[in-house]
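pasting for ref
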Amino acid sequence: MSPRKTAMNNGERFYQGDKRCPRDHDSLRYVTTGNCVECISSFCKSEKYRTKSKEYRDSRKSTKAEYDRLFDITNRAYRNALKSSNRAKRKQRIVDWDSEFSELVLEEAYALCELRKKVIGTEWHVDHIYPLCAKHVSGLHNGYNLQVVPAKWNLAKGNRHCESYFPTR
């Protein structure tokens, strides 16, 4: 049996091919497509791919916004349950032993955001260093877990810890 079929039967995602790819890579291949991992990785990093992806996203902005709006309307119960669940998780992350300090830090952080926006001219966010509800590590909603960061960076970081977004060497 071929290495790809063996990997497919074992439920694996990658397999080591017995031949080199047309670009002479000797790397792993995807079980589903048989494509070389290195070739796909280099293609996704290329400028051509990034510009095409951006054009596609830009051309679908209004369509996606309309789809999201309709989804919210037709799945109101699902959205409400999700929001309620997130509120409950966040409430569990608020501690009362340093509420006065946390309120002060939060107030100062938002004031700093406004000041930086006025002086620098770019948007800033108050971010949790350790996300409140993440897969691997979760933090608390207190003054020790807050930072003021550029909005663009915060939106790209998403619900990840700084070190998993910017791995240290």
